[in-house]
Design a protein that fits this description.
heterodimer, A: mainly alpha, two-stranded antiparallel ribbon, 4 strands, globular, B: mainly alpha
C-alpha cells in the first residue's frame, strides 16, 4: 500500500458532525435559502463598508481625516457612492465589442461572490430538524471548488481589457492574466501541505483537523507565507496591482468603464478580498474555532457555540482585511519583471520544494509513531511543535540565504558596484548637469 | 437511470441541452474570443453533469484545468495575436475541409451510438456521507496506473522543454 495513502487515512478523523441527524428535506431547503440570502447581504454590505474602511484607514495611515461629511463620521458615504454609481450615465466606447464589454464586469463579479459558498463560517447550528452546517454548501470538494472558481476570475479582467478596444486596457488585461495565472500555481502548491495534514479537501475537514491538532499557521509557516503573497497577487491588490498601475496604464483594464459597470469591478475586488481573508482564516488560522477554549469547538452543538464561533471567524477575517489595507498603504508597487521573477523564480520552486520536505517530514513523524493529536506531559502538542520548528528553520533558510536582494532586486543591483560608484562620483561633481555616457 | 428522480432528469437534460447548444455556438462563431467563451460554457455544463453523477473531483478538475487554465492561455494567445475582431479572421478553411470535419463528427456520433448499446461497466459504490472524495481517484492513480501516470508527466515535461527550446531559438 502506498505510504501517502496510509498517512491520509491515519490523519482522517472521525467526522464530528453527527451523521445520524443532518438536516434534510424541506427544512434543509429553507435553511439553505436563508443562509444564501444572509451571506449575500452580509457580503454586499461588507463590501460597501470596506470601501469606507479603506478610505478611513488610508486617511489614518497618512494622517488625514478621510471622508467625514456624509452622515456621522462619514458613515453614510458608501450609500452616497452607491447611489451616485447607479445614477451615472453608462458610456460605451465606439470601438468596443459590446456584448463582451457588458459581460466582462459580470464575469469578474460572479466568481468573486460564489467562492464564499463553501467556506464554513461557524460551528454547526443545532435545530429541532437536525444539524445545519454553517456554510451555504457543505461540499466535500470544498477547497478544489474554490481553486476552480477563483481561476475563472481572470476572464472578467481579460475580457474587459480586450473588449474596450483601448491599448491601455488591453495591456492591463494581459498583465493581469499573466499575473493571476502565475500566482495561481504557487497558491495551489502552497496549500498542498494543508491538504496533506488534513488528509481531506473539504474545508470542514480542514477546520476539524485544526481543532484537534492546532492551527496550521505555525506548522505550515512557509505555506502560509506563500499563500499570503499569492492572495495579494490574486486579488490584484498592492503591492501587486500591476493591472491597474495608474502611472503607466491610466486605470488599466477598467479605463473605459463608467457608472455601475465600473462599480462591479470594485465590488469584485473587495469580495475577492473577503473570500481570500476567509480562506486564509480557514486554511491556516483554524477557521471558526476558538483558541484555548476547546469545549466550544466540539459537539454537542448548542446555539451559543455557533454564535461564539461566528464571532471568532469574523474577528479573524476582519484582521486579514485590515492586513490587506495596511499593506496597500505601506508598500510601493512592484515592477513588472520583479513580479514575474518573484512568482516563477522564487515562489513556485519554494512551494514545490516545500511539498517534498513536508511530505517527508510527515512520513518520518508517522514512522517514529507520533500521532497528530498526541500531547507530551498532557498539554504540549508535539506534532504541531516539531513541524513548526522545522518550518522556522526553513523560513530562516528561505529568507536569509536564498533571497538576499537577488530575486526581487532593485534596479541598481543589476550593475556592478564599481559603475555605481563612478556614477555617484560624477553626479556629486556636478549636481546640475545630467549624467551622460552610461 | 430509473432510480434517479425527476429533479435529476430535468437538470441532466437542461445541462445537456446547454452544453450542446454552446458547442454548436462554439464552432459557428466568427470571432475567436466569442468562440473560446462558448467552449468555456460547454466545459461548465460538462462539469455540472460530472457533479450530478457524484464525480465531484472530476467536476472541479474540469473547471480548474480546462476553463481556468487552458482556455485562459488560449484567450491570451488569441488576444496577443490580435485575432479578435471577426473581420481579421482569415484562416477559415474551405468547403473540402469543412466536409471532412463534418464526416469525422458523424463517425464519432456513430461511435457513441454503438457504445451506448454495449453493456456499461458497473458504477462504483456510493461513498458514505463525509467521506474523502479524492481517495477513489488517487488510489488507482498511484497504485495500478502509476506507470502510465508517470509516463504522462514525462510527456508533459518533454512538451515544456520543447516550448522553451523553440522560444530560445526565436529570440
Amino acid at each position: 500500500m502506498n505510504p501517502m495513502l496510509l498517512l491520509m487515512q491515519a490523519n482522517a478523523f472521525t467526522h464530528f458532525y453527527n451523521p445520524a441527524a443532518p438536516i434534510s428535506g424541506a427544512p434543509w431547503l429553507w435553511f439553505t435559502i436563508l443562509k444564501l440570502l444572509v451571506v449575500f447581504t452580509v457580503i454586499m454590505v461588507g463590501v460597501a463598508y470596506l470601501t469606507l474602511a479603506e478610505r478611513k484607514i488610508s486617511a489614518w495611515i497618512q494622517d488625514r481625516y478621510g471622508p467625514n461629511r456624509v452622515g456621522p463620521q462619514g458613515l453614510f458615504q458608501p450609500l452616497a457612492d452607491g447611489l451616485k454609481n447607479i445614477m451615472k450615465e453608462e458610456t460605451y466606447p465606439d470601438g468596443a465589442y459590446k456584448p463582451l464589454f457588458i459581460l466582462a464586469p459580470m464575469m469578474s463579479f460572479i466568481p468573486a461572490l460564489i467562492t464564499f459558498a463553501v467556506i464554513p463560517f461557524a460551528a454547526p447550528l443545532h435545530t429541532r430538524w437536525g444539524y445545519v452546517t454553517m456554510s451555504i454548501a457543505n461540499a466535500p470538494i470544498g477547497f478544489l471548488y474554490i481553486l476552480a472558481i477563483t481561476s475563472l476570475g481572470v476572464y472578467g479582467i481579460v475580457l474587459a481589457g480586450w473588449s474596450s478596444n483601448n491599448k491601455y486596457s488591453l495591456l492591463g488585461g494581459l498583465r493581469s492574466s499573466a499575473q493571476m495565472v502565475s500566482y495561481e500555481v504557487a497558491m495551489g502548491m502552497a496549500t498542498v501541505a494543508v491538504l496533506l495534514l488534513a488528509g481531506n479537501v473539504s474545508l470542514e475537514g480542514i477546520v476539524e483537523q485544526q481543532v484537534h491538532s492546532g492551527w496550521n499557521a505555525f506548522p505550515l509557516l512557509i505555506g502560509f507565507f506563500i499563500f499570503l503573497v499569492a492572495a495579494f497577487a490574486e486579488t490584484n491588490r498592492l503591492p501587486f496591482d500591476l493591472p491597474e498601475a495608474e502611472s503607466e496604464l491610466i486605470a488599466g483594464y477598467h479605463t473605459e468603464y463608467s457608472a455601475m459597470k465600473f462599480s462591479m469591478f470594485f465590488i469584485a475586488e473587495y469580495s475577492n478580498m473577503i473570500t481570500a481573508s476567509a480562506l486564509m482564516t480557514t486554511l491556516f488560522f483554524g477557521g471558526w474555532s476558538v483558541p484555548f477554549w476547546t469545549s466550544v469547538n466540539v459537539a454537542p452543538w448548542v446555539w451559543w457555540k455557533t454564535l461564539i464561533t461566528l464571532i471568532a471567524f469574523t474577528i479573524k477575517v476582519v484582521f486579514f482585511l485590515f492586513l490587506f489595507m495596511w499593506v496597500r498603504w505601506t508598500l510601493p508597487r512592484f515592477r513588472y519583471d520583479q513580479l514575474m521573477g518573484l512568482g516563477w523564480k522564487f515562489m513556485l520552486p519554494v512551494a514545490l520544494g516545500y511539498i517534498v520536505i513536508m511530505s517527508g517530514a510527515l512520513l518520518v513523524l508517522q514512522a517514529v509513531g507520533i500521532a497528530p493529536d498526541a500531547r507530551w506531559l498532557g498539554f504540549v502538542p508535539v506534532y504541531w511543535a516539531i513541524l513548526g520548528i522545522l518550518n522556522l528553520v526553513l523560513a530562516a533558510l528561505v529568507f536569509v540565504v536564498l533571497d538576499r536582494g537577488r530575486i526581487v532586486s532593485p534596479a541598481y543591483s543589476r550593475i556592478e558596484a564599481a559603475r555605481i560608484a563612478r556614477l555617484r562620483a560624477r553626479s556629486v561633481r556636478s549636481a546640475l548637469t545630467p549624467v551622460e555616457g552610461d | 437511470m430509473t432510480h434517479y428522480g425527476l429533479f435529476f432528469q430535468f437538470h441532466f437534460y437542461l445541462f445537456g441541452l446547454i452544453a450542446v447548444a454552446s458547442a454548436l455556438a462554439f464552432v459557428t462563431r466568427q470571432s475567436p474570443v466569442a468562440a473560446a467563451l462558448w467552449l468555456v460554457n460547454t466545459m461548465f455544463c460538462l462539469s455540472a453533469l460530472f457533479v450530478m453523477l457524484d464525480a465531484q473531483f472530476l467536476g472541479a478538475i474540469q473547471v480548474l484545468v480546462y476553463a481556468g487554465a487552458i482556455m485562459v492561455v488560449f484567450l491570451f494567445v488569441v488576444m496577443l495575436l490580435n485575432l479578435g475582431h471577426p473581420s481579421e479572421v482569415a484562416d477559415i478553411k474551405g468547403l473540402g475541409t469543412r466536409l471532412a470535419a463534418g464526416a469525422v463528427g458523424l463517425a464519432m456520433l456513430a461511435e457513441v451510438a454503438v457504445l451506448a448499446r454495449q453493456k456499461l461497466p458497473p458504477l462504483l459504490p456510493d461513498l458514505p456521507e463525509g467521506a474523502n472524495v479524492v481517495t477513489p481517484v488517487a488510489g488507482p492513480l498511484f497504485r495500478e496506473y502509476l506507470l502510465p501516470f508517470e509516463i504522462t508527466s514525462v510527456l508533459l515535461l518533454v512538451a515544456i522543454i520543447g516550448a522553451v527550446v523553440l522560444a530560445k531559438r526565436r529570440a
